[in-house]
Structures are given as C-alpha cells and as structure tokens.
Amino acid sequence: xxxxxxxxxxxxxxxxxxxxxxxxxxxxxxxxxxxxxxxxxxxxxxxxxxxxxxxxxxxxxxxxxxxxxxxxxxxxxxxxxxxxxxxxxxxxxxxxxxxxxxxxxxxxxxxxxxxxxxxxxxxxxxxxxxxxxxxxxxxxxxxxxxxxxxxxxxxxxxxxxxxxxxxxxxxxxxxxxxxxxxxxxxxxxxxxxxxxxxxxxxxxxxxxxxxxxxxxxxxxxxxxxxxxxxxxxxxxxxxxxxxxxxxxxxxxxxxxxxxxxxxxxxxxxxxxxxxxxxxxxxxxxxxxxxxxxxxxxxxxxxxxxxxxxxxxxxxxxxxxxxxxxxxxxxxxxxxxxxxxxxxxxxxxxxxxxxxxx
Length: 357
Ligand code: NAI
Ligand code: MG
Hints:
Structural class: alpha/beta
Strand content: 15-25%
Bound molecules: 1,4-dihydronicotinamide adenine dinucleotide, magnesium ion
Number of domains: 2
Strand order of the largest sheet: 2-1-3-12-11-4-5-10-8-9
Radius of gyration: 20 Å
Number of helices: 12
Distance between the termini: 25 Å
CATH topology of the largest domain: Isopropylmalate Dehydrogenase
Helix content: 40-55%
CATH architecture of the largest domain: 3-Layer(aba) Sandwich
Number of strands: 12
Order of helices and strands: EHEHHEHEHEEEHEHEHEHEEHHH
C-alpha cells in the first residue's frame, strides 16, 4: 500500500532543511507519496491561522509528517493564540503524539565538535523519551491574575494522570529493550522527576514503579531527581542509556544533551502516539531567523528526522539505516556546514549525503 508523507516546511530555515530531507527521501524511498502544506507563520500569513483544519485533517490522514520549524520575529506581535508556535502545540495535542523521542548521538567524526572532551562523548548514544502532551505546559488552571494591590500572580499547573505517565513510560521501556548491552551507572531506563518536592513527581515515580513491576520487571530501572540528571549529563554522559522525563524536564535535559553531540543542527526528533497515529518528525532546532535564507543551515537534523520517520512510522528500517550510514560517511569524509566549523552550504551538505548514499 502506498505510504503518504506530509511535509510541513514552516518558517525560517524550515523550508531549506526540509528540502534536503525530501531529496534524500527521494533516493531511499522513491515510492513514497509526498504532499506539502503551509504551517506556522507561513500559514498565518496566508490564512490568519498557524494550523488550519484542512492541514490538520491532512496530517491525520498521513503515515508520517516531517515538520521544519516555525516562528520568528516576524510574528512577534501576533496574538498569543495565533502565534506559529501555538500551531505546533495544537498539532502535537490533536494528534496525541505523547512520546517525544530525542536521541543524543555523537557521530564519531564529531567527537571533537562537542562542548565536552572527546573521551566523554565518543560513542555517546542516549535516547531521551519526553512526555509531550501533558504536564505543566498544558495543565489548567493557568494564567496571570491581578491581585489588586499592585502585585500580579502568574501560575501554571503541573499535573499528570496515571495513564499519561504509564503510556509514555511503556514507550521508554520498549525502547530500552531494543538497546541491550549498555553498561554504566544507568544501564536501562532512568526515570527523572522531582518527587522530593512535587506531588506530580510522586505520582510519576509511583506509576513508573508499578508499570515496571507489572510489565517490565526484567528491565533495569533507575530513578534520579531531574536536577541530578542535569549534572550527570555533563559529568559522565556515557553512563546514561534511556532517560524518561516529563514535558518540562525532558525539554531542558534534551537541549542540554544536544550540546554534547556537536551542534543543535544534528539533532532529530520523533513524536509518537498510539499505533495507527501518524508520527510527527522534526529537527530539535527552531527556525533560526539569524541564518534563514542564507543557505547556512545544517540539514542533518531534518535528514535524520526523515530517517526516524522511516524507522518508527513507515517500517523501513533498511532505508533508515542507509540514511544513517550516509550521514556518518559524509561527516567522516569532512562534510561540514558552518555550525560544525565548515563552509558547506545547506544544499552542498545535502549533496554530500546523497553522494554517500
Ligand atoms: P533556534 O534553534 O532557531 O536557533 C538557536 C541557534 O542555533 C541560532 O544561532 C541558530 O542559527 C542556530 N541553529 C539552529 N538550527 C541550526 C541549523 N540547522 N544549522 C545551523 N545552525 C542552527 O532557536 P531560537 O533562536 O531560540 O528560536 C528561533 C525561533 O524558532 C523562535 O521563534 C522560536 O520560537 C522558534 N522555535 C521553533 C521550534 C520548532 O518549530 N519546533 C523549536 C525551537 C524554537
Ligand atoms: Mg525546547
């Protein structure tokens, strides 16, 4: 059956990097049926909305979605609920893609590009599983109240239900099962929380423990406070295998981990829901307005996001492996965009990866 792939190039460098991903997909999966739609600021400019119902329906009917990035200073004055970033939150929430996979993998050729010394990052391979559709980013009530005495109060609500914790923890355990053979201090799933000071953290830890006992008792499981994990990531990151984190801690820990791999331009991500839900794939970086339109963006994160789509949504591990190996080979051969200390343009980097294919 024909598999359908929706491209949402978005704003800033989004269209530049997704174009290279599309070129690579054309080589390894020429039978995919592509469609493309406006999203984020580009959609706002045309339709007055960052995500139209039509595009949302198109997304629901696709097998996989590749998003570039959204937002930028151009839309800074737009009402909050119409901002490009709100389109992205809505897409994630509507698709209910609750498990955000953010691999922090250091390609051998980039071990010297990391912010840590080579010995700490050579062979680094961490998978962060971040809860994406609940927690403090979505909890109600939230708002800014005027207290009437010259003071204002801003508040958010960090809350999780047991099923929200269990379903994302299950994904983390399943992933850890497929990554056997890791040593180190934290060899399996390491669940992060702030159960020392937060009730939602207490529930998080209790539900992870229960699920582990019921379904994954043979898998290693550790618990660590989220701040201690932040320290561990810069102390001895290779000791870590799979990190399970809520929406907020996962956001922070994955940016931290990204720096270990050389450049934010290298990091892909996947957002997955229940079986049958289209996966939403996107580079971890944003629209990079400072370099947009100049052909300077590193397309690797977008290309590796396409790689994740082939692996996690389209059941094409062979094609995914080809992309993975080609990116590694191109880097070994010295292909570098500016963020990696080189001088290649976005499309030249795409050329190098296609040549390696
Ligand atoms: P950013 O990730 O766009 O840029 C941070 C820095 O990294 C910049 O110096 C940029 O030039 C560089 N950079 C990012 N991607 C790169 C690449 N592929 N190659 C080379 N260099 C790269 O984050 P920033 O500046 O905080 O946000 C810019 C806009 O993007 C904002 O409007 C923000 O809301 C939006 N954003 C959107 C995201 C998304 O669509 N998922 C995620 C993060 C930010
Ligand atoms: Mg973030």
